[in-house]
């Protein structure tokens, strides 16, 4: 009985480690101002230095329509990167990893931004991007 309880507790702890907290989209909109120099979202969005981020959540990396991605980003979407375990799809967790350190998570990609330092900012930006995604 004790072993079963210990195993159940271990599964709960491991499972909760991979859970992603929901952010605040309104706060994310404010944080996204840092991204607006390169990215757009919404009905009138256009590719800039960076791609449009409509429907980015759930999309394979390097596949946004009409944008010329770096070979590194295209490879991440088709072959994956060390930490993705296969072709990279922009899940909450993958986006969080990328937003914290774009150059380290996908070396040789075009994104010049150093990354968001605060976990809350990352979660909030992801919540904001979800408002422009069909997922």
Provide tags for this entry.
mainly alpha, 135 residues, 41% helix, disordered N terminus, Cytochrome Bc1 Complex, Chain D, domain 2
CATH class term: Mainly Alpha
Rough outline: globular
Strand content: under 5%
Give the termini separation.
Answer: 41 Å
Q: Largest sheet, described in full? A: none
Structural class: mainly alpha
Q: Low-confidence runs (pLDDT<50, min 5 residues)?
A: 1-19
Write a concise synopsis of the structure shown.
This protein has 135 residues and is mainly α. It contains six helices and no strands.
Model description:
The chain has helices spanning 2-17, 25-31, 71-78, 92-100, 102-105, 119-130. It is mainly α and 135 residues long. The relative contact order is 0.20. The chain has six helices and no strands. Helix 2 (25-31) packs across helix 6 (119-130). The chain has a single domain (23-130), classed as Orthogonal Bundle (Cytochrome Bc1 Complex, Chain D, domain 2).
How are the SSEs placed, and which strands pair?
Blueprint: H1 2-17, H2 25-31, H3 71-78, H4 92-100, H5 102-105, H6 119-130
Helix pairs in contact: 2-6, 4-6
């Amino acid at each position: 009985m004790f072993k079963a309880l210990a195993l159940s507790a271990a599964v709960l702890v491991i499972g909760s480690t991979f859970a992603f907290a929901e952010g605040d989209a309104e706060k994310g909109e404010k944080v996204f101002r840092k991204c607006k120099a390169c990215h757009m979202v919404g009905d009138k969005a256009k590719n800039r230095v960076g791609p449009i981020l409509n429907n980015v959540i759930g999309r394979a990396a390097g596949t946004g329509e009409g944008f010329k991605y770096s070979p590194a980003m295209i490879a991440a979407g088709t072959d994956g990167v060390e930490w993705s375990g296969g072709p990279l799809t922009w899940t909450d967790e993958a986006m969080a990893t990328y937003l914290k350190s774009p150059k380290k998570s996908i070396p040789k990609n075009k994104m010049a931004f150093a990354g968001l330092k605060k976990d809350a900012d990352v979660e909030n930006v992801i919540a904001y991007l979800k408002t422009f995604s069909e997922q």
